[in-house]
Amino acid sequence: MDDATRLEFRHVDKLFPARNRRITPVVAVRDVSLKVARGEVVSLIGPSGCGKSTLLNLAAGLDRPNAGMVLVDNKPVTGPNFHVAFMLQNDLLLPWRTILENVNFGQEIQHTKRDVRTRRSNELLARYHLAEFAHHYPHQLSGGMRQRAALARTIVMDPDVLLLDEPFSALDAQTKMILQNDLARVLAEERKTALFITHDISEGIALSDRVLVMSRRPGTIIREIIVDMPDRDHPFRRRSNPRMNAYVVEILNLLGLTHGDGKDMPEVPLEEIGGAQ
Ligand SMILES: Nc1ncnc2c1ncn2[C@@H]1O[C@H](COP(=O)(O)OP(=O)(O)OP(=O)(O)O)[C@@H](O)[C@H]1O
Ligand SMILES: [Mg+2]
The pTM is what? Predict the structure, then answer.
């Protein structure tokens, strides 16, 4: 691994035992190798159940591979690491903590001083339009608001590496675009490294340097798409770039969602393609 690589998967397999021992285990991912360089944003796109969250959990140190290795900064991942912050799919805020206390949580683990912690959390809550809800509990918020709070909790930790599992999937279209822009700017300005999972093909292209497309389970990476467009810090602009559509069609083809020429596009919105649950 060279110095520029921050996150690496080397020939990773992950199996989950079946409930009934006589049935063979589920092979979630098979022989996945990928590298994410320092300051790079890479998206994973693939059908539902192909193992995207499994990969993210392995990178976060929440689970171990059955074969191969996952490395952060050239060291095998053996558990959660301070430099790596993750936002899991269907992120669970702690129900007994208020929104402010939830956003404070990671910083408490990092032993950030109380006044710094509260100032930073309040700043982010304001930016994410949650200031009024700082003292509410998660069950008092909508799904989209909870997702914004979970994202604030991840960003406020100021990690070097961010692992984000569908962070915008529960948001309405406008909020989603605003937060995409916000995230893209933070990632670029602070040269963060990120692995980003999405079902939204155009979101993956708009936010990333590269998109890795996965096959159905057992998930493997079938194609690397280098997004050769400027403005990675400005997804609004990327969306109006004429090359955007060609990338979307290429990925639709890889996922088997068109008949080759992209002319007979499915009639469902792109956001819904890819099997969101
Ligand atoms: N803890 C677990 N125990 C047993 N099987 C699991 C576990 N976690 C995931 N799986 C199985 O592994 C496969 C991959 O799951 P994973 O959640 O990684 O998919 P995904 O690509 O994130 O899907 P989605 O797009 O729907 O979120 C699925 O078949 C799933 O049922
Ligand atoms: Mg998932």
Answer: 0.88
